[in-house]
Design goal:
The chain contains 2 helices and 7 strands, in the order E-E-H-E-E-E-E-H-E. The chain is mainly β. The longest helix has 4 residues.
């Protein structure tokens, strides 16, 4: 049972990772997890039941290595921002599921090597996509061609990224 059943906006900043296991907040609209330096993973049980969540921001959590697959069950999620998670190597496979996702920003995730295996193809509502300063990212091109609503694309300072296929940009 949630301790704050009507809580809609939660910002966890500069706190201990134990705060993430306090309760199951089922009415959240926005969640910001900020400056939790020792966190390695975000518990799926902490996020479970957040069917109303529209915005999730995770930054900076330099030791974060795992974002739970429950992220894909957030059908109302419109905005996802992941910044300065230096140890995060990949996004969950389920990321392609939230069809409502309109904005995705991934930056300063130096260890991220890839996007989910099937890319971002299920994100049919995605309009801006920003991938910046992901030094180890090697490929994104196969996932871009399925983003039919994409209006703004920024890929910047990703030195390991191979060339983008020209077929991604040709109608």
């Amino acid at each position: 049972m949630a301790r704050f059943p009507s809580l809609q906006h939660l910002e966890l900043r500069n706190c201990d990772q134990a705060m993430l296991s306090l309760a199951n907040f089922t009415s959240l609209l926005t969640l910001a997890i900020d400056r939790i330096p020792e966190i390695h993973s975000i518990s799926g049980s902490f996020l479970a039941g957040n069917t109303f969540l529209t915005s999730l921001e995770i930054s900076p959590c330099p030791k974060l290595i795992l974002i739970p697959s429950e992220l894909g069950s957030f059908t109302a999620l419109k905005s996802l921002t992941i910044r300065w998670c230096e140890e995060l190597m990949s996004l969950p496979q389920s990321l392609q599921n939230p069809n409502a996702l309109e904005s995705l920003e991934i930056s300063e995730c130096y260890s991220m090597t890839s996007l989910p295996d099937n890319g971002l193809q299920g994100l049919s509502s995605l309009r801006p996509l920003s991938i910046e300063n992901c030094n180890s990212l090697t490929s994104v091109s196969s996932s871009l061609e399925h983003l039919t609503s994409l209006e703004h694309l920024t890929i910047m300072c990703c030195p390991s990224l191979g060339s983008l296929s020209h077929t991604v940009f040709v109608p």
